[in-house]
């Protein structure tokens, strides 16, 4: 046995050299009822410097400080003699006014290099947004959560090279979302534990409020000491393109030939957090469009004047191939600029700036009148950055619409959502900011360009894509969205509006027609004949079934109500030609679609 301090010895058979320093001032209480305390003390001795949140709670490397933390902040050890448990108020979440602690936790984490660079470039804007939100809402009565953030996309195990290629023209969409989520959680005052490898997961505390990861992460549960079941309800999955309920349900997906690499997790569909509000079955997390500038950057760009030029959306020269006729039309009206990795593969008349930093992209957008879509990449941040800088977006239609059923890019994605243009969210914004074009129709392209040149496009950005909008949305989700309770109380039932969708129409569509959104959290309330009767649905007979994904529904010929037996099969997006769907709709705050008017 190795001596580890007063009355403190290592567990039998333990071969670790991580001795805990002796502390004569620390009399340990009896360990009865705390079987994990010894192991946690050893872990803390080795790892307390790994995260700045430990020192913020007074952990300083001494045995006493370890025990105080593990007994009063967490509950792995007994209280020291003469001490009492801290009240909840002693560790409230406080809106941060700096990023000092977060930067310390990112030191020497090379996989987070691009993420940290983006965070640094937006520090001033995030801090100001936190102050602004605090002035509008009472954010003082919140408890600081322990949140594990594991971006599976940048791990060595995933081997996607996204972190390595971020500075040389690689895809940035997911890294943008991760950096903005990390910034949001930090500003809101929560305790972040950042992980980018299987090894770091092994050292993670077992008691966390939320575990945020990606579908690439789930094979790594084998390295954790706690089972999948223990983690299930606290998981949030960042999911760029969305996961629909029938793909998510492992048995249903298998029985209906919907199996794919990223499906079958059998989570509650709203545990999937998307980049855009693709489907109401998932939760819209979003990101921030980087349009606001720090004071120094603002001075650099203040003299930028709008020129008769267009900037093309496409860093890879391969995106430009086959688009020459389309670009030739645009070149008749505007000088064309690009930020492309290979000048040899693009038209000679293009002024190529190469792969540049974000500030330079902002300058080019502020100089340009038009941001030109090439039909790919799909659904990235850049078109919204263009609108925020007063630059119109030329958005190519996709004919036929692209989906996992007909597109190599979307094949394997756990949904059948049809993408009708390069950027469906921007498509919904419409003119004069976003102009839809058929790239192969010269008349259509010229009509859009001449109209744009006759408009003075003012900067435009929906609130949900600003720093303050993201802080508001994520704060409400953290405080109120609950997947662990058998009877969650949010969104409030008072927001429910019940509509019937005729046969063959989805709840998503019928809610949209009424200026509302489908709210899957309300499906359980509608899933019985007593509650449906209060909404004038006459169920003369009823039956529970797990054979449909459009329930609850009504058969008008037999006046029979069908109710959903399996709650994971509730779906906003599916329809059936023989059944009338009973749909839970709600209102939403303008430019903040994730939240109803009574949700904050």
From TrEMBL:
One GO molecular function term of this record is: alpha-1,6-mannosylglycoprotein 6-beta-N-acetylglucosaminyltransferase activity
Membrane topology, as annotated: Single-pass type II membrane protein
Instruction: Give the reactions, separated by semicolons, that this protein catalyses.
Output: N(4)-{beta-D-GlcNAc-(1->2)-[beta-D-GlcNAc-(1->4)]-alpha-D-Man-(1->3)-[beta-D-GlcNAc-(1->2)-alpha-D-Man-(1->6)]-beta-D-Man-(1->4)-beta-D-GlcNAc-(1->4)-beta-D-GlcNAc}-L-asparaginyl-[protein] + UDP-N-acetyl-alpha-D-glucosamine = N(4)-{beta-D-GlcNAc-(1->2)-[beta-D-GlcNAc-(1->4)]-alpha-D-Man-(1->3)-[beta-D-GlcNAc-(1->2)-[beta-D-GlcNAc-(1->6)]-alpha-D-Man-(1->6)]-beta-D-Man-(1->4)-beta-D-GlcNAc-(1->4)-beta-D-GlcNAc}-L-asparaginyl-[protein] + UDP + H(+)
What EC number(s) is this enzyme filed under? Answer: 2.4.1.155
A GO BP entry is: protein N-linked glycosylation
Chief subcellular site? Golgi
Q: Where is this region: Disordered?
A: 1-25
Pathway-wise, it operates in: Protein modification; protein glycosylation
TM region positions: none
* Ranges where the Glycosyltransferase family 18 catalytic domain occurs: 53-585
Q: What's one Pfam family here?
A: Glyco_transf_18
Keywords noted in UniProt: Glycoprotein, Glycosyltransferase, Golgi apparatus, Membrane, Signal-anchor, Transferase, Transmembrane, Transmembrane helix
What subcellular compartments does it reside in? Golgi apparatus membrane
Which cellular component, as a GO term, is one annotated location? Answer: Golgi membrane
Family, similarity comment: Belongs to the glycosyltransferase 18 family.
The name under which this protein is listed is alpha-1,6-mannosyl-glycoprotein 6-beta-N-acetylglucosaminyltransferase
Q: What is the species of this protein?
A: Nothobranchius furzeri (Turquoise killifish)
């Amino acid at each position: 046995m190795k001596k580890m301090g007063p009355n403190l010895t290592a567990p039998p058979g333990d071969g670790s050299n991580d001795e805990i320093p002796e502390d004569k001032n620390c009399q340990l209480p009896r360990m009865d009822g705390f079987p994990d305390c010894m192991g946690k003390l050893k872990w803390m001795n080795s790892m307390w410097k790994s995260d700045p949140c430990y020192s913020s709670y007074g952990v300083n490397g001494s045995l006493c400080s370890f025990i105080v933390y593990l007994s009063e902040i967490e509950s792995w050890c007994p209280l020291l003699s003469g001490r009492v448990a801290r009240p909840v108020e002693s560790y409230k979440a406080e809106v941060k006014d700096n990023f000092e602690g977060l930067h310390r936790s990112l030191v020497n984490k090379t996989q987070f290099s691009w993420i940290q660079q983006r965070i640094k470039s937006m520090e001033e804007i995030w801090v100001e947004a936190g102050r602004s939100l605090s002035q509008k809402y009472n954010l003082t009565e919140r408890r600081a959560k322990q949140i594990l953030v594991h971006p599976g996309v940048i791990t060595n195990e995933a081997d996607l090279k996204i972190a390595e290629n971020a500075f040389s023209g690689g895809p940035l969409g997911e890294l943008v979302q991760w950096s903005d989520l990390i910034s949001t959680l930090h500003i809101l005052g929560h305790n972040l534990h950042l992980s980018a490898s299987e090894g770091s997961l092994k050292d993670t505390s077992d008691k966390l409020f939320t575990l945020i990861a990606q579908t690439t992460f789930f094979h790594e549960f084998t390295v954790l000491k706690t089972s999948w079941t223990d983690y299930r309800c606290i998981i949030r999955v960042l999911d760029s393109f969305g996961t629909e309920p029938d793909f998510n349900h492992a048995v249903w997906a298998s029985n209906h030939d919907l199996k794919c690499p990223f499906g079958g997790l059998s989570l509650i569909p709203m545990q999937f957090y998307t980049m855009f509000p693709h489907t109401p079955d998932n939760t819209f997390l979003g990101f921030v469009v980087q349009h606001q500038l720090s004071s120094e950057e603002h001075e650099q760009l203040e003299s930028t004047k709008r020129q008769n030029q267009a900037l093309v959306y496409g860093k890879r020269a391969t995106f430009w191939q086959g688009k020459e006729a389309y670009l030739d039309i645009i070149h008749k009206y505007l000088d064309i600029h690009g930020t492309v990795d290979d000048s040899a593969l693009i038209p000679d008349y293009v002024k190529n700036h190469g792969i540049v930093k974000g500030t330079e992209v902002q300058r080019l957008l502020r100089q340009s009148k038009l941001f030109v879509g090439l039909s790919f990449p799909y659904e990235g941040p850049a078109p919204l950055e263009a609108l925020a800088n007063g630059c119109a977006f030329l958005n190519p239609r996709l004919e036929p619409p692209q989906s996992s059923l007909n597109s190599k890019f979307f094949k394997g994605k756990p949904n059948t959502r049809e993408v009708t243009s390069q950027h469906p969210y921007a498509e919904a914004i419409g003119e004069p900011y976003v102009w839809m074009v058929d790239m192969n129709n010269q008349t259509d392209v010229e009509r859009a360009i001449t109209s744009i040149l006759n408009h003075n496009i003012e900067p435009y950005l929906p609130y949900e894509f600003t720093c303050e909008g993201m802080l508001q949305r994520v704060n409400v989700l953290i405080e109120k969205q609950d997947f662990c309770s058998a009877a969650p109380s949010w969104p409030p039932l008072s927001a429910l509006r019940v509509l019937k969708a005729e046969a063959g129409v989805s709840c998503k569509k019928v809610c949209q027609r009424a200026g509302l959104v489908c709210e899957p959290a309300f499906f359980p309330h509608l899933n019985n004949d007593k509650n449906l009767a209060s909404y004038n649905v006459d169920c003369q007979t009823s039956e529970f079934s797990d054979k449909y994904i459009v329930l609850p529904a009504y058969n008008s010929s037999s006046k029979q109500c069908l109710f959903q037996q399996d709650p994971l099969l509730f779906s906003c997006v599916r329809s059936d030609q023989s059944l009338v769907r009973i749909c839970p709709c709600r209102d939403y705050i303008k430019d903040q679609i994730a939240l109803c008017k009574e949700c904050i």
